[in-house]
C-alpha cells in the first residue's frame, strides 16, 4: 500500500505523488515517540522551575524532598557546580545555566531536579523543595533594557555592566545613505515581529541510560540534530564520543524547537550517571511554552527609498533584538542574526544596510529558526510590509509595484547587496501564476463592489525568497562543526537497499522522499529502499534537520551516493555483459548494450552478481555500496508568490481568511503530495502568527502565555481551503535541482495575511498594525488608538 502511486501514469520509481511510508505506523498509533521509550528500572525526573523572572537564590532546602519515600535523588545547582556542570555552552557562544546557582534570570528557569520512582512522585516532591529568593527588578521591556538604570542580568559574565548582547551590521551604509538622499520618496515604518513559539505537538524529553559497566551512554532524545548533539555532549561532559549514542526516535514536530540542547537533557544524563539507572524526563506543555526556545522578537524600523514612479532604490533597517536571558540562538557561528541578511528580498535593490543591536532580558532564551532558515521570516516580513507601505504612499497596486522591481530571470545567479548569491528563479512567472489562480483582477473588482457597500474585503500579496540548505563548509558551522552531510547506501544481494542519512525527519516524510531520490537514480522501487536515520550509531555524520536543509544537503548526498553505486554497478554490468562500459546505456533500473536492448542486466541482477561468485572487473571489490559526504556549493533559494483574501467584520474587527493562493517554486519536486502537505502546514502557521500567536509578558517578566488557552494556535477552523500551485526553476548546483520547501509557507504567508488585513482597512486610512492582528488590537487601530506592542 505504501508504494501506491497517486499519480498512476508514472513508473513506480522515482519522483511523483506517493503515499508516505511512515503513515501506516502513524495512523495506527504505532509511532515510537520519546515518551514511548520504557526501560527496565527506569526512573523519572522532574524539574523545579523559577516562579519569578529575576531573583537571587539565597538558599535551597531539599531535606523534605529527599525524605519522600519514592525519591531517589535531589540535585541543586550547587551540586552541579561541584562537578563543573552548572553551566553549559549555548550554540551561539554564550553560556546558559543548567541549574541556577547564583540567580534565576527568567520565569521557568531550571533550579533543581528530583528523580523518583514515578513521574507523579517526582512532581509531588518538587513541592517539598524550599527555595528562598531575593526578588530583583526584572527587565521585561526590550526597549529599556539598555537604560543605564536597568538591572544587569548577566552579572555571571566577567566585567558585564549592562544588558548588551551583541551588535551586528550588514550592507553598505554609505551607498545606502547616498541612495536615500537621491530618492523622490522615502517610506519608513516601525514594526514588531512578536515573540512566538514553535509549539510542537510533542514537547521535549529525553531518556538517558548510562551503563557503568561498559561506560557507554545511550540518550534517546527529541533532537533535530543527533550527531551535532552527540559531539557537544562529548565536549561538555568529557565522555568519549564513541561511547555516546544519541537516538532520536519518531519526533512529533520540531519546528526549530528541538535544535538547542536544553538543561533537561543534561539533567537526565547527570541523573543516570548518579543513579546508575535509566532516567526519563518529559516536559509538560507549560514548560515547553515558557522555558524552551522562542522565535522572532525583533523590533524593526524599516525604510525604503524609491522613485516617484515606483522604482525601489534602497532599503535600510535598524533592529532591536530581544534574546532573553541567555543567547540561545541556534544559527551558524558567523551569523548571529541568522540569515536576516536576505532582507533585500526578491527585488533588484541598489543599496542596503542593516544595523542590529541584541540585548538580554529576563525572558526565556532562544532565537531559533522556527520554521524558517534562521531569521528569514523576520527579513521577509520587513521587506514585504515595506513594499506594501510604499504602494500605499504612491497609490500603486502592490502587484504592479512588485512586478516592476522583482529580479528578472537573466539576473541569476544574482548577488544581493548584502552578499547572498541567489541561485535561480523566475519570479515574474511565479507571481503571474498566483495571479492567474487567484483571478486577481476579478478579486479587485469584487473588492470595489464590496467597498461601495461598506464591506471590508482585503487582498494581500507577498513574494519571498528563502535561503535554505546551510551550508557550505567554508562559510558555515555550528560550534566548529562544518555543515556538510553524509549518506551511505548499501544494496543487498536481492536488490533491496538501505540508505543511511544524518538528517532527522520530524514528520516531513524523509523515509519516503529519500527513498524516492535513490529510486530515481538507481531504479530500485522506493518500497525496496529503507531509510535509516535518527541514530548516531547507525548513520554517517551530518548536522541534522532544520532551516529546510535536508533536501538541499542530505538529499543531495543521497543522490550522489546513489550515483556512486550506479557507477560501480556499471562496471559490474560491463563484466557481466562482457562489453566495455562505453557501450552500455542506463535506463532507470538496468544497463543494456547500445543498440541491443535485449542484452541487459537489471540493478537487481547486478546486486546479486556483486555479492556472488561471478567474475568482477579488475580493481572492483565485491558488494554494492558506497558512502559520500556532501558539502554544498551554495544554499538553494526557493521562492514563491502568495495571495491572501480576507474579510474583516467592521463591528467586531474579526478577520476571516477567506482564500489563500500559494505558488511555490522549490525547483525539482520529489513528492508533490508531501510538498503540498508542507505548504498547507506552513500557511496555517503563518495565519497563526499573523492573527493569534504571541508569547507575552507582564512588567515583572511573568510569562502570560504558558498554556494553549493563552497561546492561541490556529486550527482547521481558522484557515480556508488552501489553493496551491507551482513553478519549477531547478537549482543549478544541486545534483537533482531540488530546493527546500519545508518552511517556505511559514516565511511567505504572514506578510500576505497582514497585507490583506491592511488592504481591507484602507478605508480607515490605516497603513500598518502589528501582529498578531487580534480583534481587540485591530478594533483599537480602526478607532485611531493603536495599542503599544
Ligand atoms: N521535498 C520535496 N521536493 C522538494 C523539496 C522538499 O519533495 N523540492 C520534500 C522533502 O523531501 C521532505 C519535505 O518535502 O520530505 C521537506 O523538505 P525540506 O524543505 O528539505 O525540509 P526538511 O529539512 O526536510 O525539514 C525541515 C523543515 C523545518 S526546518 C521545519 S521548521 C518544519 C518543516 O520541515 N518542521 C516540520 N516541516 C515540518 N513538517 C512536519 N510534519 N513536522 C515538522 O516538525 Mo526548522 O529550522 O526546524 O524551524
Automatic annotation (TrEMBL):
This protein's UniProt keywords: Molybdenum, Oxidoreductase
Gene Ontology molecular-function annotations: anaerobic carbon-monoxide dehydrogenase activity; copper ion binding; iron ion binding; molybdenum ion binding
Short name of any one Pfam family annotated for the protein: MoCoBD_1
Cofactors named for this entry: Mo-molybdopterin cytosine dinucleotide
Protein's name in the database: Carbon-monoxide dehydrogenase large subunit
Aldehyde oxidase/xanthine dehydrogenase a/b hammerhead domain sequence ranges: 28-137
InterPro entries: Ald_Oxase/Xan_DH_a/b, Ald_Oxase/Xan_DH_a/b_sf, Ald_Oxase/xanthine_DH-like, AldOxase/xan_DH_MoCoBD1, AldOxase/xan_DH_MoCoBD2, AldOxase/xan_DH_Mopterin-bd_sf, CO_Mo_DH_lsu
Domain of life: Bacteria
Gene3D superfamilies assigned to the protein according to its UniProt record, in alphabetical order: Aldehyde oxidase/xanthine dehydrogenase, a/b hammerhead, Aldehyde oxidase/xanthine dehydrogenase, molybdopterin binding domain
